[in-house]
Amino acid sequence: MKALLDQLDALPPGDAVFDLDNTLLVGDIGEATLRRLLHRLPPRAASILGTTDPWGAYEALAARDWCGAGDVAAQALAGLSPSEVEALATDVLERGEVRLNPHTVELARALSRRHRVWILTGSAELLGRVAGARMGIERVVGMRLREVEGRLSDELLPPCTCGEGKVLATRQLITERPVFAIGDSPTDLPILRLATVARTLGKIAGREFPALET
Asked: How does pLDDT run across 188-203, given as a tens digit for each residue?
């Protein structure tokens, strides 16, 4: 990791973009909260996942359309207030259903001394903010649901923050080109290609870009 930090320290201050699920976290906070909500899925999520085996339907959807599955996981939060979502995410973290990845969190903290560190996640932004607070990361961009009378609706607001949408979201909300990006999924490859320096882990470790050394 020292060689990576030396490389990034040599660059002008900029923006470092971290994926959240299975990157800064061990586990997927969107999936963990979805599991909690399977018994009370709102209409749009229920229409996609059904009621017989919604988790099985979700896994099948994720296998063929990861970004679409992320949309459904976010839409499962519809009907909750932002404070209820925050409480749910806090409980998921405190019970260890997902946990911080010490290696990538250490990297994010080290980079924050020179660069602006962002979480860019395909999970709901509210979930990312709860996780980010535990890492000391305040800048979070994720899937957002329109709020109506104090509760989340199932309407997803642009930009999408999965796949190619991460590039658009970065250019709209963060920077034209990040100095660094890291992710674990094939859907992270577009944002990794945009960055000056990129690292991979998990399912795409070593694919197109070097794997993160820990």
From this structure: 999 999 999 999 999 9
Q: CA Rg, the chain, in Å? A: 17
> Are 127 and 87 within 8 A, CB to CB?
no
Determine the Cα–Cα distance for residues 152 and 206; give it in Å rounded to an integer.
38
Of 144, 209, 191, nearest to 7 by C-alpha is 209
Q: What is the DSSP letter of 118?
A: E
Residue 113: burial class (beta carbons within 10 Å; 0-12, 13-18, 19+): exposed
Strand partners, 182: 18, 199
Helix (H, G, I), strand (E, B) or coil at 117: strand
* Element at 88 (helix H, strand E): helix 82-94
pLDDT tens profile 147-193: 999 999 999 999 999 999 999 999 999 999 999 999 999 999 999 99
Question: What b/e sequence results for 24-51 when a residue is b if at least 16 CB atoms lie within 10 Å of its CB, and e otherwise?
Answer: bbbbbbbbbbbbebbeebbebbbebbee
pTM over 0.85: yes
Contacts with 169 (C-beta within 8 Å, 6 or more apart), sequence order: 120, 141, 159, 160, 161
Q: Which amino acid is at 45?
A: A
Pick out the chain residues at pLDDT < 50. none
